Amino acid sequence: MGHVKILAIETSCDETAVAVLECSGGLESPSFKVLGNSLLSQIEIHKEFGGVVPMLAKREHEKNLPVLLEKTLAEAGLDLENPDINLIAVTSGPGLEPALWAGIAFAEGLGKRLSKPVLPVNHMEGHILSVLYKGAKSPSQTLEFPALALLVSGGHTEIVWVRNFGEYEILGQTRDDAVGEAFDKVARILGLPYPGGPEIARLASVSRKRIAVNRDFPDAVRERATGIRFPLPMLHSKDLDFSYSGLKTAVLYKTKELGTMSEETREDIARAFEDAAIGILVEKTRMALEANEAKSLIVGGGVSANTYLQSELKKLMENFPETSLLFPERTLTTDNAVMIGIAAYIEYEKHNEKLPSARILAEGNLSF
Ligand code: KG4
Ligand code: ZN
């Protein structure tokens, strides 16, 4: 089993990403070396619209892809005209369809020109398998099955049962907005720029520190400290589903009720929202871990960068010593092409290197 070189392309949302990976070890001990990796975020372009505009994203991907390809191949030391790669991987869904099509058309064109197979990859599988990359911060991190995955991003909020590579089952998901989307919408309500997750988290941490420093309140009585609290949405639904649109509306009403707010009050609202939005993720994860004996808990997607979520999950895991908590490398938490290459390698190994060769279709709602 030699090395497999994969050129991976990701365009499902507002990040154009290209990577070249050298993969080895097979399904037993998969190992990845990133030879080249470039990413262009379109955040600045979509900022003024308060969210991602699909047709605008498509146009930007089309513009960026040739540039990023050249840059990535050069970084990997590969011939630009005839790069020594085994296959091309591209995200086929879920995501914004116009954006996905930009990546697929580019990958297929390239595949034809270079006579290389093109493999479609499920973006969510990419997020799950991103933990297979052993970086400087996680040199010995190993994924053991069965595993649970908590996937939290701007488009998804899911708890997935991962029986093995390629064997996924969604145990619960959001019925309306994704958690990252809720962070973005609440940020807008508070007049903060897009993407709102890091902005809300920053304000919330100021509120949290102020409460801790000033009065040393435990979490449960923060409500009385600031007078602002939102209930955990879907706490009593008895399933593993989520709902974030009611929480967002509750924040909207609260800000209307308060009228002009001091900076401290905005921080307290951000903190109360984060308490509820993250609190319910942790509660449902606890329920999932109680009902299923998992050897690993994988946390992926943009919201996994949230430090409050990270610290609450670490606390939670003290109750589940048999389960190891796995986060991807920091740079792989948000959308990237490395995770797409990783998922492609696993597919390639699973199919004994015989790849399906149907036309690739963009599937905005692609599930597992
Ligand atoms: O995975 P990702 O890069 O893109 C997809 O949605 O697929 O996730 C982006 C989302 C955005 O909604 C952003 O606000 C959120 O992740 N996010 C955060 C944090 N950093 C990014 N949410 C909460 N806390 C953060 N620190
Ligand atoms: Zn994503």
- Classified in CATH, the superfamily of the largest domain is ATPase, nucleotide binding domain
Helix fraction by DSSP (H/I, runs of at least 4): 40-55%
Looking at the structure, the CATH topology of the largest domain is Nucleotidyltransferase, domain 5
What is the arithmetic mean of pLDDT? 92
Element order, helices and strands?
EEEHHEHEHEEEHHHHHEHEH
Could you tell me the strand content as a percent range?
15-25%
- What does the largest sheet look like? 5 strands, mixed
Bound molecules: 5'-O-[(R)-(carboxyoxy)(hydroxy)phosphoryl]adenosine, zinc ion
Q: Which shape, going by the Cα principal axes? A: globular
> Whole-number radius of gyration?
21 Å
Low-pLDDT residue intervals, each spanning 5 or more residues: none
Please identify the structural class as seen in this structure. alpha/beta
**Total beta strand runs:** 10
Strand order of the largest sheet: 3-2-1-4-5
State the CATH class of the largest domain: Alpha Beta
Supply the CATH architecture of the largest domain.
2-Layer Sandwich
